[in-house]
Amino acid sequence: MKTILLPSKGAPLVSIRLLFSTGAVHDPVGREGLSALTGGLMVEGGAGGLSFREILDALYPMAAGIGVQVDREVSVIQGTVHRDHLDAYYDLVRRVVLEPRFDAADFERLREDQVNAITAGLRASDDEGLGKETLNAVIHEGGPYGRPVDGTVRGLTAVTRDDVVRFRRERFTRDRAIAAIAGDVPDRFVARVESDLGSLPSGGPDPARVPEARMPEGIELTVVTKPCRAWAISIGHPIAVTRADDDFYPLFLAGSYFGEHRTFNGVLMNKMRSERGLNYGDYAYVENFVQDGTSTFPLPNTPRRAQAFSIWIRPVAPAHAHFAIRQAMRELRRLVEDGLTREAFEETRAFLLSYSRLWAQTPSRRLGYALDGAFYGRRSLIDELADRLPRLDVGQVNAAIRRHLRADSAFVAVVADPEGAPEFVDRFVTDAPSPIVYDTETKPEVLAEDGEVAVFPLRTSRASARILPAESMFEGDGSDGGG
Amino acid sequence: MRSSDSHLRTFPYPIVETVLGNGLRVAVVPTDSPGIAAHYVVVRTGSRNEVEPGLTGFAHFFEHMMFRGTPRFSPEAYNDVLKRLGADGNAFTTDDWTCYHVTASSSALDTVMDLESDRFMNLAYEVEAFQKEARAVLGEYNKNYSIPINALLEKLQDTAYVAHTYKHTTMGFLRDIETMPQQYDYSLRFFTRWYRPDNAALVVVGDVDPEAVFGLARRRWEAWRAGAATLVTPVEPEQDAERVAHVPWSTPTLPLIALAFHAPAFDAEDVRGRALDVLAQAEFAPTGRTYNDLVLDKQWVDWMWAGVEDHRDPTLFLLVARVKETERVGDVRAALQSALSRAGTETLSPDRLSAVTSRLRYAFLGGLQTPDQVAMAVSNALQLTGGTTAIDASYRTLARVSAADVMTTASAVFREGNRTVVTLTP
């Protein structure tokens, strides 16, 4: 095990992240969702002589919680507490990690919650999340990245409490653990954490196979149907780089230029929202991105060994869906063919050098970034950017774009209403023109460009298009792309 | 200018304030946040101000228009400045207020202030930009629409209120959002009515010196001309009978049930508001009796929330639960109503009361880690009351809430005739 310390003299709060190198990649076949359920049950299933309710009672006056975040590759048990309560708080954390009880009633409760998160949450009331998970599913078809961390309905139904006990024993081991602590803590506290984690069972790195990803042939369309008044769209393809690779950093800059998350910096946002009012937002990413709560910043500790380039088009009116996909693909072609100008490069670089410093304003987030650095065998992303961006030039960025981004091939996932989907697919696979009609005033130059967008050729075919009902997604019975 | 008294304080930082000649209140909070400053502009206008028919959602739409440029800074130029600074900037609108926030390097504060003050004084946009932004707002409504809780709350507000503008959500009614592109002229009136220094405040938090910030503020903001309009919101008549509504849902979601009761407006000195906060925590938050019963023991409910959202005008105490099976909605409703009735007849134990007040206080303090979080707390007090003393005052009031206060308030508020019940089922 390793320890990461970020001491801060006099800080009133202490933050702890205990990371284990295990997650949904280790879900056994037929038990998809087991890792997430194990993590959830460690913190909500009672521990060391205390029921979950008693743990909640003990945490309550401290206004602290013991949270868990299970992702594909890592699981993190985390919390922040006032220094006044550190010993009492850590005593509870320690029990959760070393002596989880997995009480049967909590097992049933959390398993049902996790099934509901798929059936009533993702599939029924989170169209944008469903679009993104569908894209994941087609990029990583059949593999552990190709389904939600929550797993599948069938996998969860098969999981037993014994599976959970075994998974925790085999995967939450001292050899997979990293302790990360921030705040004003005495040395003996750090020693105590290290000694506790050292008492976990051993169990060495047992890397799951690197998730496979398939490069699409032309534009491969997956339409998932459910009742909806606007259609959510995700577009993407696998890429060969992660933060471990030198080429990631110029590509990261290109992604920011093309579609920085929830800002007006990106090409897509300006073209699609500002000039045309197509939707609420349009962004692009060169690695898996999860927004942290309601902030605009990325959630740490969601690292992957295989990444994808993706475009997120927020829900558009059904009549504009074909146009919106065309416009995104046309802008992508311009990015790949023309690259960034020197001026755009300089602006984006200046932006990222300052903006990235805002990502780690709390000690807990700083720990998260440090842990991600350890995952990739690098420093934190913020430190890597601070070091590398000043040495980059626009030629390196444009070369990285040409090496890793494909302009003519992509998976496209659309969440659409069942009535409109068949006609949309017919027009899409025949590459029929998609002229746009506005009910608002539009600049002449925008209208002129629209004429080109409407007939921008997409390499589509009927054989590479499919329509799947939302109810079949992540069911786990082989009827969908989600394992 | 004044520095807040250091005794009887919960808020852990000094708040240093001044009022500019045009009436703009400026509050500065130095914190240990090396190199970072948060700049928050508070406009005390929200969907509460939408008293004219057919124009619901306009305060939120107008927030979008504030990004559409001035003669000096086009939208692209505005964004380019923020981009070069690496700033995190955005805005949001609620029932009562609109907030424009930029967080950046503290050395960039004057640039940020120049940029922000310019648009509050010199906003200018064309019809084309106005209409495109109206459709981006429709896109925002559309993205929210697939989420059941939004539909539930929309129906709840529409049912619980008959006269007050809290009847509609901040997004507004869909029929009004659809006609927004036709309201260009009204948008200009909206700006001159409400975007005035005497209806606003400025909050700066982080690695800053208050005197230096005041100097910058005088230079950048003093030219903004006062003259806010006067708002008369319709008075909500007292409810005299239970109201019930239902939202059918077309996909297999989990049922939701909401119970709402009219409750007092925010007043930091009013023990009733804090007593309801205590009750919501004591009964319905994790460790609460009803939470333990419905979530952990019976497992009929997988999520619940209760509380009073602080508002400038009389508001709602809201209790929402997500139920695992449609057949259980009736049982859950009965259990929630019985918990609320019990609150009016049984007293909380001293231990429980003290655990709850400790929890509320530590949770507030634990949520003040970044300049943004601190600026939000100060901005919220300013939007509610026009000043900042309400933060500490409300925690002093919380400290004196007695078990009898909780019981008296509960029996006054949780009457059947004051109740609105809305359900959503697949």
Give an overview of the whole structure.
The complex is a heterodimer of chains A (483) and B (426). By secondary structure, chain A is α/β, with parallel strands linked by helices. Chain A has two domains: 2-198, Cytochrome Bc1 Complex, Chain A, domain 1; 219-472, Metalloenzyme, LuxS/M16 peptidase-like (Cytochrome Bc1 Complex, Chain A, domain 1), CATH 3.30.830. Chain A is 42% helix and 16% strand. In chain A, the strands form two sheets. In chain A, strands 8-9-7-10-6-11 form a six-stranded mixed beta sheet. In chain A, β3 and β4 (75-82) form a beta hairpin. Chain B has 426 residues and is an alpha+beta fold. Chain B has two domains: 2-221, Cytochrome Bc1 Complex, Chain A, domain 1 (2-Layer Sandwich); 243-425, Cytochrome Bc1 Complex, Chain A, domain 1. Helices cover 43% and strands 19% of the residues of chain B. Chain B is built from 15 helices and twelve strands. Chain B has a seven-stranded mixed beta sheet with strand order 1-2-3-7-4-6-5, sandwiched between helices. In chain B, α3 runs parallel beside α8 (210-221) and α9 (271-284) crosses α15 (403-413). Chains A and B meet through α2, α4, α10, β9 and α12 of A and α2, β6, α4, α10 and α12 of B.
